[in-house]
Amino acid sequence: MKHVLRWLNLSLAVSAVGLLATTASGQGFFQNPPSGHNLLLKSGLPGGFCLDESEASGLANRIVYAFQCHGRPNQRWAIAQDEEVVYGAHAFSLVGADGKCLDVQDAKVGDHTPLQLFPCHLRPNQRFLITPTGNIVDRQAGKCVTAAGPSDRAPVFIDECRWNDPAQHWSFTPNL
Length: 176
Hints:
The protein contains 1 helix and 12 strands; from the N terminus they run αββββββββββββ. By secondary structure, it is mostly beta strands. Strands 2, 3, 6, 7, 10 and 11 form a 6-stranded antiparallel sheet that branches. The chain has a two-stranded antiparallel sheet with strand order 1-12. A two-stranded antiparallel sheet has the order 4-5. β4 (78-86) and β5 form a beta hairpin. The chain is globular, with a radius of gyration of 15 Å.
């Protein structure tokens, strides 16, 4: 029941913020993700850190972390856009170089739950939304993808959204 009330509160808050954002800027609370593959997902933290997967490809349950951007395959992501539209934007999944999806570990909803790579099943713990400010919001829990800090192998997890926190801002950059 607590989870349902929490989600209802988040939905109402997002609705109110989305309405205000649409009224003030002409843009909705969420936006459509970029299309494509071979994208780097850069953290808003200083120092040039990207979402990075362990290079032990093929294994499930590999924790992802922030690491200095280098553009090798373990930092390249593809967007799998979803047909679900939430507040005017498509939900999406992030697919790593080995075809596994970014996944909230064990479908948990608590703060500091790690993100991992896991075979794609496209349930809510593998689906995300993005805000115009670059917050990536987990579709299941309504929490933001967060880097623990600007250092190599800093954990990446979901946490309560703090809209002005650079640890929760991400940008997609083509890896040329």
